[in-house]
C-alpha cells in the first residue's frame, strides 16, 4: 500500500482535506506530533569542547592525545578563568537546557471523511465478533458431548476457527488496516496504508 512521507522541517501548513481512505472530501483531521529520534552525533545537546576527544588505546591515539594535552590543559585553565570572571547567575536560569534549534517533532495529520473516521473500529468489532463465534463453537461442541456423532466435526471446526481466526484478522489488518505512522526517522514520519484515491485526489505523486 502506498506510503506518505511527512517532513519535519517542511510541515504542510494546511494539509489537503481529503479522506486518506476513499479520496472524498474529509471532515476530520487527526493532528499530532511524532517525536523524532535525536541526532546520534549529539547535535541537539549544544555546547561541547573545541578540542576533539580522543579515545582508544592504540599508539596513534596515545600520540594524538599527547599532542593535544597542552590544548586540553589550556582549555581547562581558560574555563576556570571564565568561570571565575562571570558573575553568579540565577541558578534556575543556569540549569535550564538550551532550546533546540528546530522542532524535534514531525507534524502528522490523518484526514478522514465521516464514514472512515473510526476506520480501526471495524477491526475491534470483527475481533470481538470472531471471539464470540469461536466461544459459541466451543460451547456447542462441549454441550453435544463426546458420545454425539456431531462432536468430532464440531470440535474440528472450533479448533480451525480458533487458529485461523486470528491469522485471518491479522492478515486483513496488515493488508487493509487503518492509516498508521509506520516509521519515524531523523527528519521524516512515514504514514503507511494511505489509499490510492487520496493520491489521485490530491495530486501527490504515488511513491
Ligand atoms: Zn473516506
Quickly list its features:
single chain; 207 residues; alpha+beta; 2 domains; 3-stranded antiparallel beta sheet; two-stranded antiparallel sheet; 43% helix; elongated; binds zinc ion
What sort of overall outline do the alpha carbons produce when their principal axes are compared?
elongated
| Spatial separation of the terminal alpha carbons | 10 Å
**Helix and strand string, N-terminal first?**
EEHHEHHEEH
- Distinct bound molecules: zinc ion
* Oligomer kind: single chain
Query: Can you tell me the residue ranges where pLDDT is under 50 for at least 5 consecutive residues?
Result: 42-56
Count of individual beta strands: 5
Give a short synopsis of this structure:
This protein is α+β, with helices and mostly antiparallel strands and 207 residues long. It is built from five helices and five strands, in the order E-E-H-H-E-H-H-E-E-H.
Structure description:
This protein has helices at 59-85, 91-94, 121-144, 151-176, 196-202; strands at 4-7, 28-35, 105-112, 180-184, 188-192. With 207 residues, it is α+β, with helices and mostly antiparallel strands. The strands form 2 sheets. Strands 1-5-4 form a 3-stranded antiparallel sheet, with no helix packed on it. Strands 2-3 form a two-stranded antiparallel sheet. It is elongated. The chain binds zinc ion. Residues 19, 21-22, 24, 112-113, 115-116 line the site of zinc ion.
How is this fold's topology laid out?
Layout (H helix, E strand, L loop, with lengths): L3 E4 L20 E8 L23 H27 L5 H4 L10 E8 L8 H24 L6 H26 L3 E5 L3 E5 L3 H7 L5
Antiparallel strand pairs: 1-5, 2-3, 4-5
Zinc ion binds next to loops.
Amino acid at each position: 500500500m502506498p506510503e506518505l512521507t511527512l517532513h519535519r522541517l517542511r510541515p504542510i501548513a494546511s494539509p489537503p482535506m481529503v479522506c486518506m481512505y476513499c479520496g472524498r472530501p474529509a471532515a476530520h483531521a487527526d493532528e499530532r506530533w511524532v517525536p523524532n529520534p535525536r541526532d546520534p552525533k549529539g547535535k541537539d545537546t549544544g555546547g561541547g569542547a573545541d578540542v576533539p576527544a580522543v579515545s582508544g588505546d592504540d599508539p596513534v591515539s596515545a600520540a594524538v592525545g599527547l599532542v593535544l594535552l597542552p590544548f586540553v590543559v589550556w582549555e581547562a585553565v581558560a574555563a576556570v578563568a571564565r568561570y571565575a570572571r562571570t558573575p553568579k547567575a540565577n541558578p534556575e536560569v543556569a540549569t535550564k537546557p538550551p532550546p533546540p534549534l528546530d522542532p524535534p517533532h514531525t507534524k502528522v495529520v490523518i484526514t478522514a471523511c465521516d464514514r472512515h473516521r473510526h476506520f480501526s473500529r471495524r477491526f475491534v468489532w470483527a475481533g470481538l465478533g470472531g471471539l464470540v463465534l469461536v466461544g459459541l463453537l466451543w460451547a456447542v461442541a462441549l454441550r453435544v458431548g463426546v458420545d454425539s456423532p456431531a462432536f468430532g466435526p464440531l470440535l474440528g471446526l472450533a479448533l480451525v476457527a480458533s487458529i485461523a481466526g486470528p491469522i485471518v484478522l491479522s492478515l486483513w489488518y496488515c493488508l487493509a488496516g487503518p492509516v498508521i505512522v509506520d516509521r519515524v526517522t531523523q527528519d521524516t514520519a512515514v504514514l503507511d496504508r494511505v489509499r490510492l484515491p487520496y493520491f489521485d485526489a490530491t495530486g501527490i505523486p504515488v511513491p
